[in-house]
Amino acid sequence: MMADAKDKLERVYTVNLSKAYTYLRTRRANRTVKLLREYLARHFKVAIENVKLSAATNSLLWRDSIQKPPRRIKVKGVRENGILQVSLADEVEIAQKVKTRQDAKKADKEKRQKARPAPVKKAEEKKTPAEKKPEAKAEQKKQMKEESKTAVHRPAEKKTMSGTIAQAQKKGDM
């Protein structure tokens, strides 16, 4: 008995995933994903391929590594047009809490900036020797570049068992 295309069904389930612990240690998280999809497909009467997990749900399943997935998870499923969207039951609440925290931090920061007096600009400060050094280094680099451009570049000489090739030719060995 399939629902109409316009029918929207929303439910919250606590799914027991402890069955995954009967499988190999290195395949448990994969198995929890499969168990969750099968459970929700059965209860919402949709195909397993049409069960779409949210990123938060997936990250919760994989959070503690492949070997130690959660034993149960509370999810909210919304079936629309034969496709089931699965998210954590409290995912929306968590997102709202995070947003309110961020807003509170922003307001607090603005409040502190308004309370702080504007910095007073001093007259031209004298440059310390530490500030002069970067300028001197920049000038030295420019000089080095100019010198390297004017210098004649000679390729490195190849060496043989008895010295360089040029020395061998002088001796008459080659």
Defining traits:
single chain, 174 residues, alpha+beta, Ribosomal Protein L31e, Chain: W, 5 helices, flat
What do these coordinates show?
- With 174 residues, the protein is α+β, with helices and mostly antiparallel strands.
- The protein has a domain of 82 residues: Ribosomal protein L31 (Ribosomal Protein L31e, Chain: W, Roll).
- It is flat and about 90 Å long.
- The termini are far apart.
- The strands form 2 sheets. Strands 1-3-4-2 form a 4-stranded mixed beta sheet.
- Helix content is 45%, strand content 18%.
What's the arrangement of secondary structure elements?
Blueprint: E1 8-16, H1 28-44, E2 51-53, H2 55-62, E3 72-80, E4 83-88, H3 91-115, H4 129-150, E5 159-160, E6 163-164, H5 165-171
Parallel strand pairs: 2-4
Antiparallel strand pairs: 1-3, 3-4, 5-6
Q: What's the gist of this structure?
A:
The chain has 174 residues and is α+β, with helices and mostly antiparallel strands.
CATH architecture verdict of the domain at 8-89: Roll
**What order do the helices and strands follow?**
EHEHEEHHEEH
- Residue share in helices? 40-55%
> Strands of the largest sheet, in order across it?
1-3-4-2
Q: Stretches where pLDDT falls below 50 for ≥5 residues?
A: none
Class by SSE composition:
alpha+beta
**Beta-strand content bin:** 15-25%
Measure the end-to-end span: 95 Å
Shape: flat
Count of helical regions: 5
Please give the largest β-sheet: 4 strands, mixed
CATH topology of the domain at 8-89: Ribosomal Protein L31e, Chain: W
Rg value: 35 Å
> Overall mean pLDDT score?
80
